[in-house]
Amino acid sequence: MSAAAGREPGGPQRLYVDGEWVAPDGGHYEVIDPATEGVVGLAPEASRNQVWQAAAAARAAFGPWSRASPQERAAVLDRAADVIQRDLAAHVELARAETGATTATARGMQVAVAAARLRRYARGALEPVETGLPPQVHEAGPMGGAAVLGAVAVRRPVGVVTCVTSYNNPWANPAGKIAPALALGNTVVVKPAPQDPLSVYRLAAALAEAGAPPGVVNVVSGRDTDVGAAAVDSPDVDMVSFTGSTAVGRRIGEICGRTMKRQLMELGGKGAAIVFEDADLDAAVAGIGTTFSFYSGQICTAPTRVIVQRPVYEPLLGKLARYAGRLRVGDPRERDTVVGPVISAAHRERVESYVELGRKEGARVVTGGERPPVATGRGFYVAPTLLADCAPGMRVVREEIFGPVVVVIPFDGTGEAAEDTAVALADDSEYGLLSYVWSGDVARAFRVAGRLRAGGVGVNTVGRNMEAPFGGVKQSGVGRDCGSFALGSYSEVQALVWPGGAP
User: What Å distances lie between residue 318 and 57, 192, 307, 323, 490, CA to CA?
Assistant: First the structure.
């Protein structure tokens, strides 16, 4: 058996617990390639007891790892990035096969981003953890004589962190949790999404090869919901970092609340994209069109809900329809493919059911709406779909579809009245992750952005600055990730106070 991979070549994957590759109590299940419907590999099904063993191993490793020097922790993260880059081609192929992402996306946005995040938090391990505070003068009183008290706020590791990761990016998403957690001195139990866990075991193998001590990183997988529940309710777990649906996030929050476990939640989204009449429509279409192409719309940050001023409503629809029509849907391994499959047959049916619901609610299907033909006749493909003439109360407008479907709502008015209407429509949602504003008037764009209830707003762009805080408001999440903000999220703040003598 390959110690690095935790499996015989071509054989079933094992769990990774306390530095050992462990046979799963629940056997194995098949991981399916969404593009071919073939078997990618066999993933392990952990038992509740094995998950708790992983958490206990992380608890035992926490003391030594938290006391390791920042330089030691940084070196492990840097070496892990080297290992991932060394085996880049194999990792890209696995990521593509597990997720159905195009080869370019698997390389550039999955595996490469995972390596970059490890390097970013190798530097993060060396960032100062202390913040000096102004001294405070105390006059003589019942508590003692006059004195000056000094103070400093210090970030300390939380302890054992359970990382529950999403299926749309099994490299970047886990790395974005594991790396800042380890940088601060935490230890982790990783529970990957059941659809594509094999990549996460490769990430764990890279960290092990890089010198992460036993118990610092543990990975346990399974389709049974009790596997995830055990990773959350273990008494050895101090914090849960979760990326996924709002419904699952609520259940995790309820469990965490019983013992006051810390939480970092990146949940659902229904990104509003406001397009004013003075916008560069081509730029807006290029941004909104990423909903069709990027991960086949399986991304919570997508601008799926377009709110467009009436004078440019039909022109925008025409441009979006032509954009969608040019996108090649098919085998993600082929160079000119832009839209690959969604993750599973069940998810394809869910997305298609929303399109049909939109029809029944009165939306006009401008393009898409039918299952696209592909050369092989296999795979879980959904055509890029544009729904026009939508109204705020429609379920397709209010609920997260998580597929290549864009809904468009017109609005009327001019000047401040138009801004008020656009903001009201955008905020008429239980979600508040990322929203977007397109306008040729930059002052107006920033003014409107400041009024939106969203964790982030893109002004004339869907691009992200990865040093900026990332997270949502309302039911899109709790806490902030990315950059140095992630270091804060995976730490507790301790106050140290001392006497500085009499003034």
Answer: 57, 40, 15, 9, 46
Q: What is the largest CA-CA distance in the chain?
A: 85
Arithmetic mean of pLDDT over the chain: 95
DSSP code at position 131: E
Q: Specify whether the CB–CB gap between 68 and 182 falls below 8 A.
A: no
> pTM for the whole thing?
0.95
Catalytic residue (one of 300, 400, 419, 482): 300
How many CA atoms lie within 13 Å of 452's alpha carbon, on the beta-carbon side?
A: 30
Which structural domains are found in the chain, ordered by start?
15-267 (3.40.605.10), 272-470 (3.40.309.10)
> Which residue's entry shows tokens 């409503």?
313
- Determine contact, residues 234/187, Cβ cutoff 8 Å: no
What DSSP line would sit under 192-249, residue for residue? --TTS-HHHHHHHHHHHHTTPPTTTEEE---SSHHHHHHHHH-TT--EEEEES-HHHH
Torsion of CA 280, 281, 283, 285, to 10 degrees: 160
Contact 21, 191 (CB under 8 A): no
Based on the residue annotation, tell me whether 300 is a catalytic residue of this protein. Answer: yes
Is 449:459 a contact under the CB 8 Å cutoff? yes
Instruction: Write out pLDDT tens, residues 391-433.
Output: 999 999 999 999 999 999 999 999 999 999 999 999 999 999 9
pLDDT tens digits, one per residue of 179-222: 999 999 999 999 999 999 999 999 999 999 999 999 999 999 99
Number of H helices, E strands in the chain: 17, 20
Confidence of residue 502 (pLDDT cuts 50, 70, 90): very low
Which secondary-structure segment (H or E) carries 185? none
**Cα–Cα distance between 434 and 471 in angstroms, integer?**
8
Return the pLDDT at 4: 59
- Tell me the torsion sign for CA atoms 478, 483, 485, 488: positive
Place of tokens 């777990």: 237
- At 43, phi and psi to the nearest 5? -100, 145
What torsion do the CA atoms of 53, 56, 62, 64 make, to the nearest 10 degrees? -80
Rounded CA separation 279/477 (Å) = 30
Residue given tokens 């210090």 in the structure block: 154
Which residue's structure tokens are 């977007």?
436
471 Cβ contact list (under 8 Å, min separation 6): 264, 266, 433, 455, 477, 478, 479, 480, 481
Other CB atoms within 10 A of residue 417 CB: 11
User: What SS3 class is residue 281?
Assistant: helix
Q: Strand pairing of 160-164 and 239-243?
A: parallel
Over pLDDT 90: what percentage of the chain? Answer: 93
- Asked whether the beta carbons of 238 and 158 are under 8 A apart, the reply is yes
Catalytic residue among 45, 98, 266, 400: 266
Start-to-end CA distance of the chain, whole Å, equals: 69
Helix (H, G, I), strand (E, B) or coil at 182: helix
